[in-house]
């Protein structure tokens, strides 16, 4: 989270451009995302409120292991509050389905996303069904451009929930 704060300072000083997106995929030894990335008073929230994301639209996405599904609404609320002065928009989550094989026991992760700026305004006008369709279309486009074993179209809206 220190990196995010330092980047926000450089953005404010005009020596760096703001980000389109910030993806958090950080865990401690017990599988917890450090509080500084999740909480309302955390370093990431501070960096977001200082302008880490572009004013014309961006998002912050946090990867949470399924054991911490209850952290999804809290995480989105913290990021929405931090982005409130920048036009916080739709918050949503999807659930990446896990696999069960003899060598792997993976229940699946949750991805918590908070949007901001002009793009967030456009997303907030969509119905749940339209948002799901838009996410799946983006997933189709990514699948067509990437060489991956994952079905990104399916993953992009699996277990979709919105938060306001």
Q: What can you tell me about this protein's structure?
A:
The protein is globular. With 164 residues, the chain is α+β, with helices and mostly antiparallel strands. The model has no long low-confidence stretch (mean pLDDT 85). The two termini are 25 Å apart. It has a five-stranded mixed beta sheet, with helices on both faces. A hairpin with a 2-residue loop joins β3 and β4. The protein has seven helices and five strands.
Question: Topology, pairings included?
Answer:
Layout: H1 2-13, E1 21-24, H2 35-38, H3 43-49, E2 58-65, H4 71-82, E3 88-101, E4 104-116, H5 117-124, H6 128-145, H7 152-155, E5 161-163
Parallel strand pairs: 1-2
Antiparallel strand pairs: 2-4, 3-4, 3-5
Helix pairs in contact: 1-3, 3-4
Q: What separation lies between the terminal Cα atoms?
A: 25 Å
The secondary-structure class comes to alpha+beta
Instruction: Specify the biggest β-sheet.
Output: 5 strands, mixed
Can you tell me the overall shape?
globular
Total count of helical runs of at least 4 residues: 7
Run of helices and strands: HEHHEHEEHHHE
